[in-house]
């Protein structure tokens, strides 16, 4: 159910970016990131999020939809918004991801290229902040070539909602699927923006919804548990993205410090 007004961009909006979120305290930084690159996503906010986060989202997000999902996960938040959209393409991103410059260029060009297949896959690079450096993991847990493929770009006419855990939120037809080049990737900063105890809590939350849905993917959430040498860490060579991620990390630390002080009391 959609309970907040959805602000449309008027006729002729060919591409819509939708980002389901809940308690991402760096949302203002993300809004600035997209705005600076000529993008105006729809932020889909879980109505069960805290009043503080809902207030923060309303303050920062020019296009916001408040939804009541049927389960506490992003996949169940999409349908009420997408059903209301009139566009050619849907791009679904998450609040712990940033599109690379090449992927942003692809998104801008979607409405002008009729040659793309109905579904597009892009790789997702898992990042860490180590000794002041932003690095990506290259490891075969992400596939035989060390690449974590995500299928989040599709024609609106091809949308068939899928709400299962660990799906893109859509059913994907592999016979109508194309692959973007490696530089058109998603920068995934889950390991940067969430502390270990938060990632462990996410594993438990997934397991509560479906046995094994979290613990079977433990290696994706807890790189700290990987034996030495499992991850091949490499620099990302994306100065603009690195600056944004360092801002997010500083913001995370500041929020954590304020929360610790508040909990300590007088």
Care to describe what's here?
- This protein is α/β, with parallel strands linked by helices.
- Helices cover 30% and strands 22% of the residues.
- It is built from 8 helices and 11 strands.
- It has helices at 27-36, 51-60, 79-82, 101-109, 190-193, 196-209, 218-221, 239-264, and strands at 15-21, 42-46, 64-67, 89-92, 97-99, 119-130, 133-138, 148-155, 177-179, 186-188, 232-235.
- Strands 1, 2, 3, 4, 5, 6, 7, 8, 9, 10 and 11 form an 11-stranded mixed β-sheet that branches.
- The longest helix is centred in the C-terminal third of the chain and has 26 residues, at 239-264.
- The radius of gyration is 18 Å and the shape is globular.
- The model is unreliable at 4-11 and 259-266 (pLDDT under 50).
End-to-end distance: 42 Å
Helix content: 25-40%
The oligomeric state is: single chain
Number of strands: 11
Largest sheet: 11 strands, mixed
Low-confidence stretches: 4-11, 259-266
Structural class: alpha/beta
Return Rg in Å. 18 Å
Secondary-structure topology with pairs:
Elements: E1 15-21, H1 27-36, E2 42-46, H2 51-60, E3 64-67, H3 79-82, E4 89-92, E5 97-99, H4 101-109, E6 119-130, E7 133-138, E8 148-155, E9 177-179, E10 186-188, H5 190-193, H6 196-209, H7 218-221, E11 232-235, H8 239-264
Parallel strand pairs: 1-2, 1-4, 2-3, 6-9, 6-10
Antiparallel strand pairs: 4-8, 5-10, 6-7, 6-8, 7-11
Q: What attributes characterize this protein structure?
A:
266 residues, alpha/beta, eleven-stranded mixed β-sheet, 8 helices, 30% helix, globular, disordered C terminus
């Amino acid at each position: 159910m959609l309970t907040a007004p959805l602000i449309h961009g008027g006729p002729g909006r060919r591409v819509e970016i939708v980002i389901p979120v809940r308690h991402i305290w760096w949302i203002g930084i993300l809004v600035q990131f997209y705005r600076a690159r000529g993008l105006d996503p729809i932020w889909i906010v879980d109505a069960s999020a805290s009043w503080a986060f809902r207030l923060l989202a309303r303050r920062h997000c020019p296009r916001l939809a408040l939804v009541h999902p049927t389960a506490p996960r992003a996949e169940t938040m999409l349908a009420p918004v997408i059903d209301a959209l009139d566009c050619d393409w849907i791009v679904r991103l998450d609040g712990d991801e940033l599109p690379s410059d090449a992927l942003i260029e692809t998104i801008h060009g979607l409405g002008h290229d009729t040659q793309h297949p109905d579904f597009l896959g892009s790789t997702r690079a898992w990042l860490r902040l180590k000794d002041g450096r932003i690095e990506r993991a290259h490891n075969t847990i992400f596939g035989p070539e060390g690449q974590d493929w995500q299928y989040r770009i599709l024609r609106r006419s091809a949308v068939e909602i899928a709400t299962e855990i660990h799906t893109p939120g859509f059913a994907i037809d592999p016979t109508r699927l194309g692959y973007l080049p490696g530089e058109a990737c998603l920068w995934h900063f889950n390991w940067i923006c969430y502390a270990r105890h938060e990632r462990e809590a996410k594993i438990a939350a997934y397991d509560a919804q479906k046995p094994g849905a979290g613990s079977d993917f433990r290696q994706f959430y807890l790189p700290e548990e990987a034996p030495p040498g499992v991850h091949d860490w490499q620099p990302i060579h994306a100065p603009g993205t690195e600056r944004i991620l360092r801002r997010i990390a500083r913001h995370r630390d500041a929020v954590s410090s304020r929360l610790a002080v508040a909990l300590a009391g007088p």
